[in-house]
UniProtKB/TrEMBL annotation, chains A, B, C, D:
In the C-terminal section; belongs to the purine/pyrimidine phosphoribosyltransferase family. One of its GO terms (molecular function) is magnesium ion binding. Gene3D superfamilies: 3.40.50.2020, Glutamine Phosphoribosylpyrophosphate, subunit 1, domain 1. The keyword Amino-acid biosynthesis does not apply. GO terms for biological process: 'de novo' IMP biosynthetic process; purine nucleobase biosynthetic process. The keyword Iron-sulfur applies. Its EC number is 2.4.2.14. PROSITE patterns: GATASE_TYPE_2. This is Amidophosphoribosyltransferase.
Length: 494, 494, 494, 494
């Protein structure tokens, strides 16, 4: 099916050239509220940083059944008109924003946009998913062999087919049945004609929180989506937990074999919004404390502490507070960033960064500047920013990075470049410093990061408290499809 | 002519409910560069904060003559496609972004979008204008009486008609002739088949700067528009100066009777971008110093200094630095703001502010908070933010405002509400504090503001160094049309 | 999934208020031509009269695999841009235009637009269908029970699922397997990675012809689609025949039990284009001969013979030629018909017919007029036209209808109103004459119709040569789903 | 101003490759009816054949003043939505459809779309124009010299500027004043705040008729526009007459020096709709009689008379009736014509004609065919149609043309190619026959044409009753601008 071509706007949270790891989905579901679709739209709007390419909402209404609207682009542009929202009646609904994990990467088409809806023999269901199933290809191959017709390129559809073929007679049981067949990291929402279901994988890699407003229950990826609708935060859905909500209330079951949780530590570093609370901790405060740890681990004499906006700001504030070096807005973001401008002449080409960021020349000139950024992926952005800062007359540039070196790809629902594109996979800290060309470059240590997120004794190397595979190469779930395709050789195998 | 209905996106620089004064135009012109239109588009993009409703570009090409493209909406959406830019060939061009001053207010139509182009007996010309002509209605009436046909509702068109009827034989002379007939505050750009002209009114109320890149000259409203294209800042165009640029170079003339300059002080407070330099001073630094002045004039015991993002941030940093109270991101902006969501239920209605701003509840709870904002216009935003902060559990809320009370409307190209809508026109500081309902509310003094922008001895009451009519009610140019229409009674007349 | 709302334009072939039976699909496939998609688009354009709501094209390209574009609206608007056609590379392709038979009637959504594509364990396939499966609901129910997920509301998808679950190892065998399970009237096209397949149901109710251009083979609903691309007409695909085309050439098999053919006689009356040739006979000539038969069976004294344009014209010419009464363009069509105009006042309301048709008042006034139309369905159009003609001053109006009374609904891929909406189901010819209010009303006899299409001895009542269920109530295939749903009581049962 | 690119649909009335003279405007105005805009839209829809590129409507409403909507494309697409029509309140209105005469030919932009509205010192006015002013460039030059700013490239705007500068105090007087300054052929409508005005030039070259519905008056280009709204035809506006309609009724004045009328004879041949009545004569009947004349002047032995649809049909019927040779639909139009399809391969290229026309092969094969067309302009279409007919197996092809050879361009509001592109300007009838390659080619004589339109003794060579400059080269009004530009050498000058 052909969709109008849309160039997804770059995320204002991301750095200028997309040189970031990207969380790839946000979820929001509600049960028991009039105008459920409006709540879902607002919640997805608050979660837009988790996926900007497309969004979808499914509601259920007693008289009209399931209603589906999917669109490429931003929630604010797609789910605000009366015309659209009237197509989504009902007291319950789920929604999804996505970048793209599996599926046609970088080229989202409407049919790959979640939630997916299907009519099973036991009734209709819509499902939406944040994460990645690491054995989806194997399951899909088997299902096609048996006569299932796939309509998308998404791994999520395999779960719907498994549910369609399950012998159980209720949708929650069929969902459990299906999820016990898959591996990977996932938070799932399912909407039925009389209920709402939320599930987290046994390790709890991806987040999912529970909220309440009036008599309605909400499930969302982050607490900031509760705040926007004025809902009360109740608790995190637990790793391995399935919550089932219907008119009789909320029930909790634990369908999987128990495992030690391994929440994604990068949610603290970059993915989540700074006004969200994860596992009882303020994301903003965690990031500020990473800055404090950095200032202790890697102090430097300087005149100003500046952030690479906006994601580096909390750590920059922490660094300034711990070091006593004044914080200043040395780099200003243009708030009207959008798709790339045409750049037909040599003169204009390669100025991409200035479209989004501008150095505050008047206050940088002649200064020794500490620049705090959240992470280094390919290193391309760091080099451009260094150039801008030096071009503006800075005397010294000291990069401080609020995460350890990112040396391994993620297979759990995060868009990462191939391993050989990750700067830290082949260079030491010193080599990266020379490559980027700055006076100093320091990353926070893995232990420092663990301390900042509240593990006072740092990382437990025997039983790490988080999933930190992107830093450590220790993958808590085997990436089966990738191994089969020969796309990855694991550390363990080296 | 009918245009497709477009809902202009709210400016991310503005506070949530539009409770701000609004600068209403941005200008950019270039002479002597290949692909002039690309430079203009980039420059307008950097000036988007000065006008978000619409934008237009006119270029001149030897073989194709004048080329015009005007569109409603953002530069990034309208002037980036190859299809559009190919319609704008040429080595010289001017562009304009606008909100709306005169003309069909709040309902911009394409025909009111500048630049305006016309064929005079002495050749073609395109003009664009930042400011407001205070006697435009009188002139327009007279021109119609003599048989001129107006095609827009803009005051700028009157200048074009005056030029069409001038007896002078060159366009620069006709422009001088026309501008000597008008009153008000203005910076004008004019593009001819062989040159580019820039003019500032005798008081220099509105800004205009001169830059250079390679062999090309640039005229722009702010220096940030020079930065984005990598141009060098040369100097401000002087109050009352006309610069004429052609293949022979740049000439400067002073066509008006000399007056003492009265630059708009609100450009420092809010309109200009923090990375621009005005009159040799960094806007960011001026704002930070306002925060320092505020901390001196209005200290308070508190736990945190927070900004109402984003315009209050520099002053909040200054307040924190001067007071020693830690700065924190207590309010987080949603980067994906857009047009208003539908809010059909009582439950959702009135939550407008949360769409754009969210309180960082985890760090605000139980704290005494100093909230720094740039200005108070109607006071509606201040009340909503106060509610949000208290709702998040703040113990005390102390508002500190980085400008004096705004008590008078502007007639020089800034969108202000009627006088009786301005909170400060009828209330004292204490009354405003009680009305808004905060523990304390303090504005920086007019002298403090003057000190922050570099006038060390403060305001000279006899010969004020700036136009500060919005604070003082002292209007340097008589708003003739408004008086004739009975829309304003001046302080002098009281 | 949400599609932009489109109001399908009314067919210029249909009479003003849609008071016609409507053929519901057109098919075109080609194998072995560069730019296959362009041929398909042209062929579908020529078949647009068979379906105006939507169209789809699927091509197969060796390097890019299957390519799918589907759109609501006309072929001329949707499949002409370079941008679209570049998305459809390949040397083979099939296309479909549809009104809507089953599926969401009157509310076509993109996901219901054919061709449908699926990946089977034995390879990819796309299918398109003209006709209607009379036991589709029963099959769909069974498939869902076994775990198939349906993504459309179309009966055609059931065939794809049957193919997905077939145990045969080639797509042609799986298609045969599936089609042996279904009942109804159908012509099917299937595109595989290395071939093109065409099938007609055993009765041959719906048409399908074979053509050739250069080395490429074409399958299309009508010969006019061969003419438009300059292809040579080879022969009709036979009732019950499957033709399989690949690089080795064309093979023919007869997978079904043989039956006596029962081609749809209404294709001659109205559905097919007058420049098509069916079963060796010119459609135009058949229609002209119906007029001749009518003039013999129902002569009348009159001054002019006029057609209800455009479908009544050939029969009107025949009537004129046989009767000697001059033919004249008494009713003129507006060539720019489109969607309905707003008609907010009593004055304007109910003038719908005049938007499309206007009486040529100057030549009608005072005349006795024979008005020839192709059929009477609800009778609403006939009444409006009679009013127009009398209003223009005609002295007498004699309706002559080029088909027998339409008294029974069709279940074989034609959109008909419910039986009780058919005027002829409850009225005699005389009652209809009085109801419509004309001086005389006569239908051609069923035998006359058979003679006109070449059966010289008329209809064989024991073994009718055509499907004429809409006139006779004798249904050659049991409409099982309809009977199960209680939506129809058959003549046999009366 | 930039407009979205639109490819104007080809007119279904025109022959396949645009090889026709084109009437360039249609007018409709109404005074005194609620929902005036709906009447105007319907009337313009009926006049769409007079201009397909764009349309505009201006209404006047007491409370909202003048309302303007202009769009590129068809009336049916642009003036039917409630959203649009609500922008056009009022009890009076005028509208215009245009192809393009002067102005940016072939590239209509919105600002050139009429009606044009302006605020004069004596009140607002909107004007619309069918025809062409032959001295517009001279007047425009003079107006610019005096300081008028032109906003369009249309000759009509000059009239508005002349009105703006007139010393008269009423709009009707100013319109007379302006029209006395211009030369050419024109029918004008003007809408004021309290009236509607219609004027025809002294020769009455272009049509304008007066109608009445209820208490409302209508002015329109043709009677078919009265029929569509159910209005009564009152009379033709007379050559040189100005009718002024307001709440006191209708007044008629004759502002110009009287001249003998010279109505455009081509309106009978092709421009007007066959259901319109011109000067008391049915257009259909005139065309049928041209066929009768042709059969008398140029008989031939043949089997069938066919029309080049649709404009040749009435003459073909006349030819058949006079000659006794049967009329048949030998060429069928595709009703879904639209913009050109992509034709990337040699195979598909040059098949343009078949997209719109298809030969009814089954009835043409082996026949001697008389083909009746309305005119020959460049001859390109005639050659393509001849090819199609021969390709279908016709034994002989005899072209009969229902107008004399078109040898001279029109300067009175009709789009004609340059003289050297007109086949008849350089070839005799025999040469054209050989060039086109048919068995015979005959044009009706100029006298025959005059007889068919009711001049029983044919053309009066001393005082021709019609403007027939395109056939005779005798121009009743001097084309001054063309002569000045050296674009034309007149017959008189030869």
């Amino acid at each position: 099916m052909q969709e109008p071509r849309r160039f997804p706007l770059a995320s204002p949270f991301e750095s200028p050239d997309g040189d970031k790891l990207r969380e790839e989905c946000g979820l929001f579901g509600i049960y028991g509220a009039g105008d459920a679709a409006n709540f879902v739209a607002l919640g997805l709007h608050a979660l837009q940083h988790r996926g900007q390419e497309a969004g979808g909402i499914v509601t259920h209404d007693e008289s009209r059944g399931f209603n589906v609207v999917k669109k490429l682009g931003y929630v604010r542009d797609n789910f605000t008109s009366a015309e659209t929202m009237e197509q989504l009646p009902g007291r319950s609904g789920i929604g999804h924003v996505r970048y793209s994990t599996t599926g046609s990467k970088g080229h989202t088409t409407l049919r790959d946009v979640q939630p997916f809806h299907g009519d099973l023999a036991v009734g209709g269901v819509a499902i939406a998913h944040n994460g990645n199933l690491t054995n989806a290809l194997q399951i899909k191959r088997e299902l096609i062999e048996r006569g299932s017709l796939f309509h998308t390129t998404s791994d999520t559809e395999a779960v719907l087919h498994l549910m369609a073929r399950s012998f159980h007679r209720t949708i929650p049981e069929r969902l459990k049945d299906a999820l016990r067949r898959v591996e990977g990291a996932f938070s799932f929402l399912a909407l039925t004609s009389d209920g709402l279901i939320g599930v987290r994988d046994p390790l709890g890699v991806r987040p999912l929180v529970l909220g309440r407003i009036g008599d309605a229950w909400i499930l969302a990826s982050e607490t900031c989506a509760l705040d926007i609708v004025g809902a009360e935060f109740i608790r995190d859905v637990l790793p391995g937990e399935m919550v089932t909500i219907d008119d009789t209330g909320l029930r909790s079951t634990m369908p999987f074999e128990p495992q030690r949780p391994r929440f994604c530590i990068f949610e603290h570093v970059y993915f989540s919004r700074p006004d969200s609370v994860i596992g009882g901790a303020s994301v903003y405060e965690s990031r500020r404390r990473i800055g404090v740890e950095l200032a202790r681990e890697a102090p430097v004499e300087a005149d100003l502490v500046c952030a690479v906006p906006d994601s580096g700001t909390p750590a920059a504030i922490g660094y300034s507070q711990e070091s006593g070096i004044p914080f200043a807005m040395g780099i200003i973001r243009n708030q009207y960033v959008g798709r790339t401008f045409i750049e037909p002449t040599e003169q204009i080409r390669n100025m991409g960064v200035r479209l989004k960021l501008n150095v505050n020349r008047a206050i940088i000139r002649g200064k020794r500047v500490v620049l705090v950024d959240d992470s280094v992926v390919r290193g391309t952005t760091s080099m451009k920013i260094k150039d801008m800062i030096l071009d503006a007359g800075a005397r010294e540039v000291h990069f401080r990075i609020a995460s350890p070196p990112t040396a391994w790809p993620c297979f759990y629902g995060v868009d990462t470049p191939d391993k050989d594109k990750l700067l830290a996979s082949s260079m030491s800290e010193e080599e990266m410093r020379d490559h980027i060309g700055v006076d100093s470059l320091r990353f926070v240590s893995l232990d420092g990061l663990y301390r900042a997120v509240g593990e006072e004794t740092g990382r437990d190397p025997e039983r790490p408290q988080y999933c930190d595979a992107c830093f450590s190469g220790e993958y808590p779930v085997q990436p089966s499809d990738m191994i089969e395709m020969g796309r990855i050789s694991l550390k363990a195998a080296e």
